[in-house]
Amino acid sequence: NYEENDIFWCTADIGWITGHSYILYGPLLNGATTVMFEGVPSYPDFSRFWEVIEKHKVTHFYTAPTAIRALAKENIDYIQSFPLSSLKVIGSVGEPINEEAWHWYNDHVGGKRCPLVDTWWQTETGGIMISPLAFITPTKPTYASLPLPGIQPVLMDEKRNEIEGNQVTGSLCIKFPWPAIARTIWGDHQRYKDTYFSTFPGKYFTGDGALRDEVGYYRITGRVDDVIIVSGHNLGTAPIEDAINEHPAVAESAIVGFPHDVKGNALYGYIILKETGESRDRKNLANEINVMISNQIGPIAKLDKIQFVSGLPKTRSGKIMRRILRKIAEGDFTNFGDTTTLLNPEIVDEIKEGRI
Questions:
Q1: What helix, strand, coil percent values describe the chain, rounded to 5?
Q2: I need a surface site. Which of 52, 79, 193, 317 has the fewest CB within 10 A?
Q3: DSSP secondary structure string, 116-160?
Q4: What pLDDT digit, counting tens, does each position of 32-68 carry?
Q5: What are the chain's domains?
Q6: Rg of the Cα atoms in the chain
Q7: How many CA atoms within 13 Å lie on the side-chain side of 36?
Q8: Could you tell me if 226 and 238 are in contact, meaning their C-beta atoms sit under 8 angstroms apart?
């Protein structure tokens, strides 16, 4: 839906694939004007994104749910000072967007008039694979909707069979190649084949789980390897985090497992609260959160430990570094691995000190 004189802004870091494809190559090869932004949405204050949109009259705005959640928990005055009337299309990229963040983005940034294009793709796909078409595809909160022309997604079961019909869940694969598919891993082609084509032979395995609803819309449910076995039950972290994030006091959450003598593994929740200025009893809040989880998923998914934090360790591209959270939950502070890509390294010490 790009037209002459439109301004496209993808807020991604230039070193991330989203920066390659949607700051540089994609817009410029199509003759678009693109904004390159070097900085973070919180500096010098939380109105930074909205100032840039107003200054450059941005028409197409593409950012990550992580950024949206971070901005949503701040004072609404930061955004209400800007009309954002230049915007025509808003987009989401990088991870599944939860329903509360979707509505905040749609209402306060898009003004309930801009199509919210929730896109699904990966570094290895090179570009968007499943996404609404702006002004054409009806949107649905948390759903990436339909595949783009030529893309043929399929859902697979544990027996490597293709799942037919709608209202089903499974492992998301792509049936046939597409132009931007990654061709290999540099210097290790066997690893490329083993990683992407061995789990479901003849199909590209994305590593994501997905739901296909009654009309064929796709909803990404999270990484299939983000599964924690608790008392013999396989629990995906994404549905639990979605349930937590529906609590009106919660801005964002991350769930990891830690060893438990009886259950094998138990659940540890790191939870960021919204900046409302209100004081809440943390014990009561933790109980409310576990009641929500129990009602939506089941008692087996309740959190054994809840730590309220001011932030989560994230890369510049907005990905939560769960291995750090997992190690802290386990009480292992010895080796967090490579942390050079951390955007906020100071938060790690804060979380360590507050460990339950």
A1: 30, 25, 45
A2: 193
A3: EEE-B--GGG-S--B-PPTTTSPP-TT--BSBPTT--EEEE-TTS
A4: 999 999 888 888 999 999 999 999 999 999 998 888 9
A5: 7-118 (3.40.50.980), 153-222 (2.30.38.10), 226-353 (3.30.300.30)
A6: 21
A7: 10
A8: yes
